[in-house]
Amino acid sequence: MGKIIFVTGGVSSGKSEFAENLCSQLECRDSVVLYVATSIPFDFEMEQKKADHQLRRKDKSWFTIEAYKSIPTEIGEFCYSNSIERSARKVILLDCVTMMISNLIFDRNAEFDVDDVDERAFVEKKVIMEFKTLLNFVKSENIDIIFVTNEIGLGGISENKLGRYFANLEGKVNKMIASESDEAYLVVSGIHIKIK
């Protein structure tokens, strides 16, 4: 069983950079590093952020998987197609939980209706199950994983229902991952603080 590391903080606080440095520290000669990018770039701003992240990693021999659901299956298929043995030690950097949740919310229904109680409950159950499945997978394999997320609950209460629903759901997911983690860090203005 590997190590679960949780990295949280505000938007553009330096979380990804810090997590990449942690990942480099965990990397060793016989390990395979998989960067799981969960965002779907819909506009120029997101494309630019993706390019900035890729530029920071350009000198690293890491593999990138672009996925926001069924992560254990995606990892398995990627390793199989790249002849990476199942038993090989893996270091995974998942960046980020926030984008993964957002994509999962709208995955089934682009017109997600936050007022539909049944739809809300279905989506919440689906999101929680995705992360539980991933955590169980990591615990059963030779994997170290770093989760990068946003601490959006510090930004005040949203004036719209979707924003409040999202913040509450991300709060639940963040608490679940943090409770399972071996280490947890808060990044503020580029400075990391170990909180667990």
UniProtKB/TrEMBL annotation:
GO terms for biological process: cobalamin biosynthetic process. It comes from Peptostreptococcus porci. The active site is at H53 (gmp-histidine intermediate). GTP binds at G9, G10, V11, S12, S13, G14, K15, S16, A37, T38, S39, E66, D95. GO terms for molecular function: adenosylcobinamide kinase activity; ATP binding; cobinamide phosphate guanylyltransferase activity; GTP binding. Pathway: Cofactor biosynthesis; adenosylcobalamin biosynthesis; adenosylcobalamin from cob(II)yrinate a,c-diamide: step 6/7; Cofactor biosynthesis; adenosylcobalamin biosynthesis; adenosylcobalamin from cob(II)yrinate a,c-diamide: step 5/7. InterPro entries: CobU/CobP (IPR003203), P-loop_NTPase (IPR027417). Transmembrane segments: none annotated. Keywords: ATP-binding, Cobalamin biosynthesis, GTP-binding, Kinase, Nucleotide-binding, Nucleotidyltransferase, Transferase. This is Adenosylcobinamide kinase. It comes from the Bacteria. It is an enzyme of class 2 (transferase). Its EC number is 2.7.1.156, 2.7.7.62. The keyword ATP-binding applies.
